[in-house]
Amino acid sequence: MLPLFPLGTVLFPGSFLPLHVFEPRYRLLIRRCIEGAGPFGIVLIRSGSEAGMLAEPHGIGTVARIVAVSPLPDGRSYVVTRGERRFALDGVVSDAEPYLIGRVRYLDEPEGEGAAARVAEALDALGAYLLAVLAVTEDERADRALTEELKDATPVEIAYRIAGSLAVDAAERQALLELGSAADRLGEEARILRRETDVLRDLLVRQRARGERQDLN
Known about the structure:
- It is a single chain.
- Helix 2 runs parallel beside helix 4 and helix 2 runs parallel beside helix 6.
- The chain has six helices and seven strands, in the order E-E-H-E-E-E-E-E-H-H-H-H-H.
- 43% of the residues lie in helices and 26% in strands.
- By secondary structure, it is of the alpha+beta class.
């Protein structure tokens, strides 16, 4: 059993997510997790909202571990969580606590067939994307940080690190989370990165037409 925190965003294993905790039921959830040094599950909302009535979650989420807490005088708090592992919801208990409780099954993380080739494909696509970002924004920090993090990582770690860095909507992030292997995730990420690179290149062309940016090689 795992306490659940439905949100309008997706947490990937290995990624960090800051939360502003203000509803009484989630204050209780967070307090219990802190006191018991236990995790909780973050799940994307399928229907409903973060506040008000209990939301219906998607069927796959990520275990979250609290790594930092900043309590506020009025009972609210800011917490930072880190994603640990994926789980599938086999059922939800909605009447035992003010928040949802999930009956969960933890998921394996296979690399999948052709993972090494997919890593190379995704990293090539990532490099082209970061070059496009640099050309449009002239910001080299993301390029250096992400490249350094991926240097000695496994295919599973690389797939999740790229997933966490993508500026795509929650539905697309959830689809990445639900894929069954690192190879499948890397292949989809390469497709997304190529799509986003094309968008940035189109933006660069418009900027160059206005004399705002240099050419992109």
